Please model this.
Amino acid sequence: MKRIRLNVLVAAGFLFLLVSNNVFAADGAVTRRFGLFIGSNNGGRERTILRYAVSDARSVSRVFTGMGGIAEEDNIILVEPTVADINRQLDNLGRISAQAQRNSQRTELVFYFSGHSDEDGIFLNRERYGYRELRERINTVQSEMKIVILDSCSSGAITRAKGGVKTQPFLFDTSVSAAGYAFLTSSSDEEASQESDSIGSSYFTHSLLAGLRGAADSVGDGRVTLNELYRYAYSETLAKTETSLYGPQHPSYDIQISGSGDVVLTDIKEISASLVIAEDITGRISIRDSSDFLVAELTKVSNKPMVLGLEPGLYRITVQTGGNNFYRAEVNLPENRQTILNRSNLTIFAAAAGDRRRGNEFDSDYDFNENDEERSYLFSFQFLPGFDGSWIKGKNTTHNFVFGLFGGMSHNINGVGVSPIGLINTGNVNGAQVSGIFNITEGWGHGVQAAGIFNITNGERTGVQTAAIFNIAKESVIGAQTAGIFNFADGSLIGLQASGIHSFANGDVRGIQTSGIYNIASGEVTGIQAAGIFNKAGEINGGQIAGLVNYNSGGRGAMIGLVNISKSEDVIPVGLVNVVKNGILHPAVYVDDMLFTNISFRSGNRYFYSFISTGIGGSSTFNNSATQFVLRGGFGVEFTLNKLFFNLDISSGTIFNLEAVEEDTDYYGNWTLNIDSSSVGIAQLRFTTGYRIFKHLGVFGGLSYDFIYKHSDVNRENDDFNDPLIGFSNDRHMHKLGIFAGIQF
Model:
């Protein structure tokens, strides 16, 4: 009986410890994962502009946000950044991560780059970021785990020692003890990384995305680990590039991790919809969304179900089981539900005997039906759009030159398309598209797109897009976008965006964004943003110039406008009213030795400010007893020492004789207000010392050097200067030293 009771007590104690441990783990350190995703299509003048580096970075970012444990506020996307941009974001993440660790949070960093590189480093337009410097900079971020993914040529040069120790999952297990880093690269140190128009992505990132969505889950537990992802991306990338023109591509790795278990990268349960490919389906599988974008392409060889995490929506799935037999199904994935795809859901169709193949492999990205074929035309004359027999629905045609009398239609243009009315291109354009009224391109466009009224490109636009009224590019613009009324770029802008009314870029701006009325850049502006009325940007690194209002959410640079508003401490505002984070915003009342009673307003950042002041009095300056009015504006710098502050500023303005202001009537009898030419100018250099008694109350005083001069047509008899106490004067101007004191709010 005692033994039984003892066993019961031991079991109860063990259960208590287990529950206590689970409670502690649940209430203990929480893992917080940060993501920095970088896309750079532009590697400098010597390198071809990439098409999919930016879109790849956005796709990887979305997957990690939806399935990889990165919150929206911790997900950072940089498009065409500079080295300084990357360093600034890494420094910022380092500060946030360190603060999270002080709050007992476990932190992880995911760093992804897609773009150009060589064996020494990555290219950011004309800048090179060396691998050694990049690794050292990433290592300055305090985090338990760093996962670095590079999709660029010769990126394997960043890796050194191969191998690593398995670790425990960190994303969902709060008792994890793993620490270290993992570098995954798209190629070895002597290989080219490749992208493909057929998949709309790079081979490596395309495989990576499919793996993260669940294709790499070899265990079938609904989670994708670091080791599973690397094995999957390696085999898929190698299989897709073995017969390519540039040779096979071998992804590389450098993993140095201490701890136990394995690192979980994504959890399929975290996304709102999922597709289960049943055990009776094997073969090559491609999945396209309702926009015909290839979401995933994979090979399923096992007779086990495969679960993929996808966004809710309609998908078209094609399965190649071998030979010329293909199967297809359309599947609608509802939100918060798991949808199963069985063999019975597939409809069989056969590829035509005359289908073109690339090399000896079947191109599963091409949509076949019984009449499909590819054709190329040197010249096409179209009386009406598509009425020359070359554009037939279901055919993939390319025109080197197309002329449309009453409009033209083509799949792809690899040359020149001309029409007095308009051209519609359902594919891509590599060349020039010129029309009298409009141009529409469904895919990407490289070269010139010019029309009398409007241009629309649904993909990326590289080159010049110009129209009399408006331009729209649904993705990034690299080059120039000019229009008489407005420009719209749904992605980033690299180059010039100019219009008569407004310009809009939904991503970052690298270059000049200018318009007659207003500009909006949702992302970062590196360059100049100029408008007649209003500018709005995310962060700036350059200048904002507007006739009325400038606004940005951060960055550094100059802001020139009537009103400047910024959430950054590092901007230099030049305007009448400047509202800057932790900046100067002080009204004041003061008197001076000229017997002016003044009201002034200073605003700016912590060190630089602009100010305006107005005063009345001034009878001691002139030998008459007339009341004077002064209006001044200028700039200055401020330095603080605890509650003391020191200002040095310069200003200029005008002194008016109020008794010289007269009412009158013009030749037609209309009422007028005449200001006599007896006004004089004033320039002033001031040094101020002040003390802040409270946050919004202080006292100040100082010395000034005043230069007062008469305009050439001033009535000298009425406004002769009095002799200054310290200084000298004649009938034309006065030099003197002055004093002033007042209260600042």
In short: Helices lie at 2-27, 53-67, 83-102, 131-139, 203-215, 226-241. Residues 564 and 578 are 5 Å apart (CA to CA). Residues 584-744 form a domain with the Porin fold (CATH 2.40.160.20). Residues 1-28, 159-177, 350-373 have pLDDT under 50 and may be disordered.
